[in-house]
Design brief:
Strand content: under 5%
Strand order of the largest sheet: 1-2-4-3
Number of domains: 1
Radius of gyration: 24 Å
Largest sheet: 4 strands, mixed
Distance between the termini: 61 Å
Number of helices: 16
Shape: globular
Length: 423
Amino acid sequence: MDWLASLFLAAVLTRAALRLWLATRQIEAVRARRSKVPRLFADEISVADHETAADYTIARMQITRVGALAGAAVAIGLTFGGGIAAVDAFWRAASLTQPWLGLAVVLSVLGLLKLVEVPFSVWRTFGLEARFGFNRTSPRLFVTDLAKRTSIGAAIAAPIALGAIVLLERGGAWWWIPAWIGWLTVMLALAWAWPRVFAPLFNRFTRIPDTALEKRLESLLERCGFSSDGVFVMDGSRRSSHGNAYFTGFGRNKRIVFLDTLLEKLEPPEIEAVLAHELGHFRLHHVRRRLLLSALLSLVGLAVLAWLARQPGFYAALGVPVPSPHAALLLFVVAAPAFTFFATPLVSWWSRRHELEADDFAVQHTGAGPLARALVKLYRDNAANLTPDRLYSAFYDTHPPALVRVARLRAIPVPGQGDGAPR
């Protein structure tokens, strides 16, 4: 399967080149408008804040460029460079048998991939974020978080890998159907358990201390027909000054979470508007659609893996001389991102569409003005880029550009002021 080797190499190199090119375009576009605050934001965002946001974006893009090269090097090193084959040979020398041999190889390679990520995480946290005044993570907390994430990841990955190896080896030609069912079960279980079991290992979650605000938000939940485990405040300020809000869990374990840093920056009507936006994703079935798409894509992915695993040339083409179930899994994990990367613009477009629909939902329940004001504050305080390169934004951005989003909200008439009055 020499064609597969050539196709994979072409995909890896094209992905790296495209990431470098788009990051460079973004740097040039942001740098060119560094001192020019868009007129729409001139009254709320100063030139100094805009310049800080530009510098922050440029610094992030520089990390992205290094990451693009490192990602290509790791993918090629694990395959053509013999990385997976070397780990496999090491554990074979220990006389392990399946499925324990496969599990040892899989966890070792995943551990190596985690090690590659650590320097970038350190760079972002103690270099980039600290330089721009966002980091509040201590070295001790960083190490503790890393240990927890690694332990949880290993505890989750081990039984998944073990089950996949056993099914690949003994499950017959249609092993990927029960594997898919098992995968969905695990993912849904994790999503259900995350708010109560895993998230509290990293952060404290408390009820909103402001009684009036809590009642206001509960009233919004009732109007939107939304039942959940509650609205919680997370101590995000322990790690960063960035503000955000998110929706987590499903079923009776649904939670809406505000970072304490966000509550410090927004007024009650603005907080209500942010909540209405998050509720929009639920009421408009965005979460369900994404879950269904993810389930479908995972089924297709497992079917492709099942076909590749039966091709003797698959292993040798990607640098592994000895075929095995665990080698098939690892080669697929390493190779798949090189191809799925090219679907990024479509996924980003779909996400931006959902964000606008959620904005419209929020406008119906809280008005356009509070949401627009909340977004401007978040853009300013999070040093968000207001002037992205169009191609970069179209390829990557999961949210509409700031100018598009805020202009759209401010064009909505204010009730009682006549058509066309900006909100």
